[in-house]
Structures are given as C-alpha cells and as structure tokens.
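S.,

As promised, the EPU run. Input:
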Amino acid sequence: MPFILTTFEYMLEPIVENQSLKPYNTFGIDVPAKFFTHVKKTEQLQELMEWKRFRDENKLILGGGSNVLFTQKQNALVILNEIKGINIENEDENSWLISAGSGENWHEFVLFCINNNYGGLENLSLIPGSVGAGPMQNIGAYGVEIKDYFEWLDALHLATGEIHRFYNKDCHFGYRESIFKNKHKGEYIILKVAYRLPKKHKLNTGYGAIQQELERLQIDNPTIKDVSNAVIKIRQSKLPDPNKIGNSGSFFKNPIVSNQKVEELKSKFPNLAYYPIDDKHSKIAAGWLIDQDGWKGKTFGNYGVHKNQALVLVNYGGAEGKQILELSTKIIDSVKQKFGITLEREVNIS
Ligand code: EPU
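Predicted complex:
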C-alpha cells in the first residue's frame, strides 16, 4: 500500500511511495515508482518544487504514458501531468490560435478543434497520449506532423522554476524529434501548447489509405470531420487499442537511408516499401522490414509483435518491460542481418 508522505497547500494529491505505474502507461507494465504524485495546476508544480527532496530525486513526467516502456522500478519522483484547459488565445482574419493544457488528452483536443470546425489536426486523430507529449517527439501521421501547426509552448524549467516560452523554430522539430528529447531532455515540464489553425484550411488527403477510406464511404467533398473519421477507421483497423492490448504505437522509427542504399535493397527486394524525403534520402517502412523478416504476429507467451502492424510490439497482459525490450533487440539484430539497416527505437526506455 502506498503511504502518504506529506501534503502541501495546493496539492490535491499526496506524494505516495511505491505506487504501481500500471494504470499510467499504455503498455500496461506493472512497475512501482519510488514517489508518485498528480498535478492539475502549474502552481502545484511550483509548490512541489519546494519539497525538500525535489532537487535530489530523479523526475519523470508522465502524460498519457503512451510512449514509454518501463523495464524496472522507477527510481524517481513520477509526476502525472493532469494540467487541463483549452483556450482560444486569439483570432485574426486568417487563423485561430488555440492552446491546450499539456495534460489534456490529445484526441479530445483534436475533437474539440474538429467540432468547432478548426481544421489542421484532423489527420492526427486518435493518436494516444497527451497534448504535452505532442511536441516532445513531434507526433505525426498520414502526412501531417504537429510542427506544421505548432506556434509555441510554455514549459517550466525545473532547475530555476521559471516558465520559458518556446516558439516553433526553438523546438528543433525533426522526424519524431525535438529539443525536449535531446538537448533539454528532462530539464522542462511542458505546461501548455498552442496551435495556429488557418481559417482557409486545405485538407491533406493525399495519403493513400485516407483516399481509399473516403472512396469506400463514397465521400467526394470531405469535411474536416470526414477526414478525421477516415483516419480513426484506418487506425482502428491497423493499430491495437491500448485500452484492450498493451502497446505504445510504433515501437521503432522508420529509418532514413541514402537513395543508394534504397537502390541496393530494391535489387534484392523489388517490393521494398519506402518514401523519398529529399533527392538524397528516403525513409524505409520499418514495419515492412520487420514483416518481411517474419516477425509480424509472432507471440511469445504474453507479448509479441502485433498481427496487423509489425512496427507495434504488444503486451497481452502481465509481460515484463525487460522481455519486450529483449524482443526489440532481437528484431533490431535480425533486421540488421537481413537488410543491413539498424532500426532505432521510437519509444523511450525507462
Ligand atoms: N507495412 C508492411 N507490414 C507491416 C506494416 C507496414 O508491409 O507490418 C508496409 C505497409 O504496407 C506500407 C508501409 O509499410 O506500405 C507503411 O506502413 P503504414 O502506412 O502503416 O505506416 P508506417 O510507416 O508503418 C508511420 C508512423 C505511424 C503513423 C503511420 C501513418 C512511424 C514510426 N510510424 O507508420 O505512427 O500512424 O505512418 O502515417 O513513423 C506512431 O508513431 O506511433 C505511429 C503509429
């Protein structure tokens, strides 16, 4: 049983010891946290920083827990971010600037925009996780990344307690990358994120699967909502629902290789799945590599590789993070041997 250490004036939740993190990660891995608390307001965070042990303990911020694989007890103060609130910051003739608390559920925020007819984020429907996780790794799907609409975020600097604003260019967004995953890793807690959504919005339906889904539904002039519904359908058909089967979405990144390497591979594997990204490089579908290597649908007791999308590793219930990590290492080694490409994990290992 977790026990209460202390409470503060603003703290709605006490700091507890040895709290199981199972409900707080979409992989459903059961490890305890040394210390655990919730925060619903920035003031609570600032007050938490005054806790005498704050400075000395490692800190781990959890939003939706949708991009982490726990492989051991978390020797840290785990802070569950529940900072909420959606606001129209301003509006001009061309756009709306809409902000959301970092602890808002991402999909609910996307639905808020869609239901108000603010277009831009519809291709990012149903991505698990929180608003704060979006800029951490520049989430993306079906031809859109958050960096396309991101304006700024406010983040609490843990060392000083100051709130710093980062604009789009400050975040150094790349493919599933940002400054918060690299240079500033662990230094900030994202509090609030703002997106500028254009009033003259052009839908992005170029992605093959979206076109097919719209055709299937016989929709010629799709609305923002139609595109969102199509994306939801596609995701539901390919990706396991983390409420039913533990998973963290794509476990690996799609590797970026030289076009020379693509040509080499194509001569051996003519149906290679890849997308050119500039005149020198292409992104190879890691799911295709893993699938071709025979891993798709493989099950090892209570964990394995998902049957519809080889990029997704799954916990059917009761698996340990270490086992899933070992499986990922075996996949990396085997893909390296067959294709000469080293896959990188997208998920944070903790
Ligand atoms: N493929 C296979 N076998 C598989 C999986 C994929 O042959 O088991 C082939 C597909 O047939 C297709 C290609 O690989 O030709 C690409 O597959 P898909 O369109 O499903 O997309 P992905 O490249 O596997 C990426 C993102 C997803 C995002 C989709 C759609 C990464 C690491 N993943 O997956 O993001 O939803 O595109 O845009 O970039 C996530 O990050 O968690 C995530 C789910």
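The longest strand covers residues 188-198. The two ends are 23 Å apart (CA to CA).

- D.
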